[in-house]
Write a structure and sequence with these properties.
Subcellular location: Membrane
Order of helices and strands: EHEHEHEHEHEHHEHHHHHHHEHEEEHHEH
Number of domains: 3
Mean pLDDT: 86
CATH superfamily of the largest domain: Spore Coat Polysaccharide Biosynthesis Protein SpsA, Chain A
Strand content: 5-15%
Number of strands: 12
CATH architecture of the largest domain: Alpha-Beta Complex
Bound molecules: guanosine-5'-diphosphate-alpha-D-mannose, manganese (II) ion
Domain GtrA/DPMS transmembrane: 244-356
Transmembrane segments: 245-263, 333-352
Shape: globular
GO molecular function, one term: dolichyl-phosphate beta-D-mannosyltransferase activity
Pfam families: GAF, Glycos_transf_2, GtrA_DPMS_TM
Number of helices: 18
CATH class of the largest domain: Alpha Beta
Radius of gyration: 27 Å
Strand order of the largest sheet: 3-2-1-4-6-5-7
Low-confidence stretches: 484-502
CATH topology of the largest domain: Spore Coat Polysaccharide Biosynthesis Protein SpsA, Chain A
């Protein structure tokens, strides 16, 4: 394998034979001083690969991945994702082939990334940018509305003025190991929503008119955009959180209000008592939905989070009750009073949960930075119910308790693993026997696996997928910290929470 270049440029192409020659010419002068590679991911039937080969003239830095048949499934989105995975530059730039994205902008974008940005977006919507190249007012309107929808729904998309831009550059380490599943054209949006907490910089893009060939934008692309939005809302845990939180609140009202109507109407229960009876079911409903949906990404066990959530919910319930009673005493009908109380409670709830509603991807690094790696390990062990959490060196002899080869596999494949040993060689009839269960997660620092995080437990219930996820979240945060903190990445650290208490 040759050395990884500083920059990889990924260019998806479909029937761009007329454009790739001029594009390569401009790229090669724009990137003259930059250590780079260029990968075309091509789904063309018009001889685009031949046109690339003619211009590239044997330049080893230029490569084409030509796809046929079922490999083309997913079109542009899979093209860009596989292009990103196949290249190795420390920075990756994605751009269109039709010269709507001026190659001359790349050095500036690279400079911005080297100054510290994780993602640099060439934006049509910042000062100095323009979208003169967007054909027709209809297309412009659609683009405006789509951008507003994306930014309105996803807090993370607001980091850029143009989250739907097809021209961006990012630091590879922020996307390393993330499986992107975009649908359609909006790869950048996928990246922003799936990797929260990125440092994003916009640079102006003068979006030129298409040089040759035709745009692949169509009604179908529009529908795919909606499908992508749907997937980002429902298949990305913790995304669009304020909206999910609000929807759950509304759905709670759909339980509370009919119950109050029923109790005060047919059942003739006094209005104040009716509230006290109707509130608990809606509270349970809200709590469960918020836990499994709104806060699905914050799975630190059942304890702490839920207690804090319930505390707030009961406070807002009390405020709601107060408002309800006040409105009743002013002569309001029970339903109207309850609706009024709900408005008060929702505002309060929203304010109280504001911090929680924002994502906190850095929780683990905060613990590790503030209190040290050992503290982070102890806390993790507590949260997932492990008897201990340990860091093993990524190389060298492994602990005898682990099956041979498994640490090597975790390091090589860079994947978390979960295994459980049965109590004996026969299926057990008793349900209270204990099994040994082990989680192993690579701690990736830059390009290498710095350590393997191992959590063990001997209990009636083995670890599950949620706990594996929690360990991966913790491992990600530990990534950059091991080297600075432990004075060496080859030292084994281990701590038993029970030893601390003793
Ligand atoms: N490999 C591959 N497969 N490439 C494709 C496919 C496909 O199925 N469809 C399109 N491409 C390539 C095109 O050849 C071009 O290089 C690039 O993807 C963008 O396609 P265009 O057809 O030029 O898209 P556009 O100009 O309408 O849309 C551009 O602007 C949008 C913002 O308004 C793109 O950059 C979008 O990503 C961007 O959202
Ligand atoms: Mn285009």
């Amino acid at each position: 394998m040759t050395r990884a270049p500083l920059l990889s440029v990924v260019v998806p192409t479909r029937d761009e034979a007329a454009n790739v020659g001029p594009l390569l010419a401009r790229l090669s002068s724009a990137l003259a001083g930059v250590d780079h590679e260029i990968l075309f991911v091509d789904d063309s039937d018009d001889g685009t690969p031949a046109a690339i080969a003619r211009t590239a003239a044997g330049d080893a830095r230029i490569d084409v991945l030509h796809r046929e048949g079922s490999d083309r499934t997913g079109g542009l989105s899979t093209a860009v994702v596989s292009g990103i995975h196949r290249t190795r530059g420390e920075f990756v730039c994605v751009m269109d082939a039709d010269l709507q994205h001026p190659p001359e902008d790349i050095p500036g974008m690279l400079a911005a990334a080297r100054e510290g940005a994780d993602v640099v977006v060439a934006s049509r919507y910042v000062r100095g940018g323009s979208r003169r190249g967007l054909g027709g007012t209809g297309r412009r309107q659609v683009s405006r509305v789509a951008g507003a929808v994306a930014r309105g729904l996803f807090t993370e998309a607001r980091a850029s003025s143009d989250p739907l831009s097809g021209f961006f550059l990012c630091r590879r380490r922020v996307i390393d190991g993330i499986e992107f599943r975009p649908v359609g054209f909006k790869i950048l949006l996928e990246l922003l929503v799936c990797v929260p907490g990125l440092r994003v910089r916009d640079v102006p893009l003068d979006f030129a008119a298409r040089a040759g060939g035709t745009s692949k934008a169509s009604l179908r692309q529009g529908l795919l955009f909606l499908a992508h939005i749907r997937s980002l809302v429902f298949e990305v845990q913790g995304s669009a959180r304020p909206w999910k939180f609000g929807l759950v609140g509304l759905s709670g009202l759909a339980i509370l209000l009919p119950l109050i109507a029923l109790l005060t109407g047919t059942a003739r229960v006094p209005a104040l008592a009716a509230f006290l009876l109707a509130y608990p079911p809606s509270l349970v409903w809200n709590t469960v939905l918020n836990r499994v949906w709104t806060f699905a990404d914050q799975r630190h066990g059942l304890g702490e989070g839920t207690a804090r959530y319930l505390e707030r919910a009961i406070l807002s319930g009390a405020a709601m009750f107060g408002a309800y009673a006040a409105l009743l005493s002013l002569g309001g009908a029970p339903l109207l009073a309850a609706a009024g109380g709900a408005v008060v409670a929702m505002v309060l709830n929203g304010v109280a949960n504001r911090a929680a509603v924002r994502r906190r991807p850095s929780l683990w690094s905060e613990v590790a930075l503030g209190q040290g790696i050992q503290a982070a390990l102890t806390r993790l062990a507590d949260e997932i119910g492990a008897s201990r959490a340990t860091l093993l060196p990524a190389t060298g002899p492994t602990s005898g308790a682990l099956p041979s080869g498994i640490v090597e596999r975790v390091v090589e494949q860079r994947r978390g693993a979960l295994f459980t040993e049965a109590a004996g060689h026969r299926a057990q009839r008793r349900s209270n026997v204990e099994v040994r269960s082990t989680l192993m997660v690579p701690v990736v620092d830059g390009d290498e696996v710095a350590a393997v995080l191992v959590c063990e437990r001997v209990a009636r219930h083995p670890f599950d997928g949620d706990q594996l996820d929690a360990a991966m979240t913790a491992a990600r945060a530990l990534g950059g910290l091991i080297a600075d903190n432990s004075g060496g990445r080859h030292r084994t650290q281990s701590l038993r929470p029970d030893a601390l208490n003793a």
